């Protein structure tokens, strides 16, 4: 038997949970929001805030110089892909962009584990976007390098949930005590499911505003209920607008509606306008995972409470923090 | 209302025209050739010439280290995309390549302003190629970061026009006093329109050589006439070949011809061969925006007057200069 | 005639064979395995081994800082493209990724020589993957910058052959005296053809194991025979398994079989299982160019003799070595 030890893994081995170099996150995968407790979230957000301050001061810096990210996207997502690329580049690292993977090895029948084991020969960390639920966990099982889930179908998109929560913390300086109202497609909207779950770690109040056909799923509501967090459902924003600190709006996709004819009727009822903001708190924020279509009219963009473009920028800091952490540099 | 100020914009804000840090170009958009006067062109070309000398001496250097370019191409253009990527990399900066944008957010219905406002959270400057006229101006209206137009349909492609003019200046050491002959498809050829407009700032003589169906449009000729620049149209190169200092050849696209049968007949009349060069000046240059098909035969490539591949390289220096200038580093 | 000399070529000109700066490889193209003698292979492998040690020690380093690689892929190959990208980035260089070239200039009818002459205005070295045999030689003929063939159809893929041989040398500490058994599709498998040719420079014994319809082509066997290397063909692995030091398995592509019905029957006869390894030497290795489908069952991956994922990593070091060498930095 040969005694070969793959060399570049030697100084960056994939450690089991609990074993650590610089931090509890060194060498770990980021697969699901459920892997974090409140203390860990605070740590991530503190690091992300440091990233924000460093970028404000110097733009970029060489924390991850010489490190390589394999940005493996089995389905296109300009926003998420660009955000991870920027995060790595602002930290002085390099990126292997792999956007057309569906036309490549995969068409020759290669399995995801084999693709990942190949890429880890070239990169120090793998970001994976894949249409199938559980794909990131599968990749992480086989990879010795850290895997960051950038969305696995209707499953998880943990960095999105983290950036959503970080946005609230940065914009309103706290999470405890807030009233968070989620509006739009709460049935298929992956982001609101993950955010609701993460918020059970805090002392918040949740409102759901949607038509009945797009209501928050029963199993999510059961989870929230078990956590003791108060929640309530509405078919109109009006009753809860005045008390809302965070209005999280999601996109209503016409193709998700069984009866597409109701799509038009939703625009009036579940869209945010400058008129809406007249009756909202002065210090509330409007969030949206983007892309938006009609859910928030462009005139709202000029209102300081429109936080959705800043939300994109917070995503950069969250991803910078996670990359630095799993590579042992935070 | 929150008082959040997006941090990475703080040290790179998008300044209005006239307001400046290092130069009049800091924070500005590059949208159209019409935005430059002759003095500004001279400045751009001087910076581009410095870039040429620096590249000759050291290959690359860290003028834009830590800066990130979002290279946003809604339609493919290997040449232009690669040129901007190289320009950023030779200056030590990084690139977010976004080539498959048409398959991505856009298909979810996102507007260009939203895409641009998202990308500016990740990048310091945006290069945009888009099939619709006016798209770059629209993007620039919403972006706080500088936008460089890399072609908006049949509209403008200002960096192409600048590199064309820079090629003439570098190769022939002057622009004033030259006779520039444009040949081929002058009707649909965006590059000759922009170059002709730019040349009105100089003391030149313009000749147009094309079949009638591909003649220079009336509105361009009116513009040139109003500038006082002498111009003349021909259906054959012969009468003006001997006096020509710059022979700018464009591609004739078969699909643009109403009667595709005439395409073959054009090859003899409007193609450049080694025979053509026998009757041309010793110190003239042949230019072409590339890709070429039959307009210039490959045997011409070996003639020192064949400037079209060097033209590609001049494009690199122009783009390096513009990137450095709008980022306040020139 | 103008006396312009393209500046960035001045300090990196494309030297003819034999003319050298730092080494015999400076400025040269890498087109075919047949261009190397045994001494040159030893030199390449020594440099690749240095790369392996440097990566193990520091991950990345700035040997090629400021240099730019144009990674020009006319057909997708995630593995090869990622490997070259990583190689350039681990050496501190930059990459222009050109993956969608088939949708771009080429569709406008541009020839490969023109594309290459354009790209060399932006890059210091060109890696080319192209579906047509001889395309790399054609590109190299016109390019003044070094061209590295990353696969030209059923022609050559020299860096694959070099990494295969390097894998054997690194894993078994020698090549002379080994028995190399090639199994699977030996008829269409480009990698086994190139490896067999390269191995004629060493003192080895070759076994071919395949069904008759996928046997090693007559012309390759003639070449091997003329070199004096002993070779033998089998339709089953059993007779040669015990003596084998290197078992090189290739993918059997169903679409290559005239009678696809026999595909299923091949799985039992030409697949490697943990059972197979029970009867193999303790110090042998199993190789595969990947992607694999059924030829090696996943349970084999856990055996230390499974070298195919390490093989991917050795490819990184070979490509780092070649890039450094042709750019005069090895």
Question: Could you explain the architecture of this structure?
Answer:
3 copies of one chain form a homotrimer. The longest helix of chain A is centred in the first third of the chain and has 21 residues, at 38-58. Mean pLDDT of chain A is 90; it is low at 1-22. The first copy, chain A, has a 5-stranded parallel sheet with strand order 7-6-5-8-9. In chain A, strands 2-1-3-4 form a 4-stranded parallel sheet, with helices on both faces. In chain A, β6 (205-209), α8 (218-227) and β7 (231-234) form a beta-alpha-beta unit. Chain A is of the alpha/beta class. The first copy, chain A, folds into 2 domains: 7-156 and 315-326, Aspartate/ornithine carbamoyltransferase (Rossmann fold, 3-Layer(aba) Sandwich), CATH 3.40.50; 159-312, Aspartate/ornithine carbamoyltransferase (Rossmann fold), CATH 3.40.50. The first copy, chain A, is built from 12 helices and 9 strands. Chain A has helices at 7-10, 38-58, 78-90, 112-119, 135-142, 158-172, 190-199, 218-227, 238-241, 262-270, 274-278, 308-326; strands at 68-73, 94-98, 125-130, 147-152, 179-183, 205-209, 231-234, 246-249, 285-287. Chains in contact: A-B, A-C, B-C. The interface between A and C is large, with 38 and 43 residues.
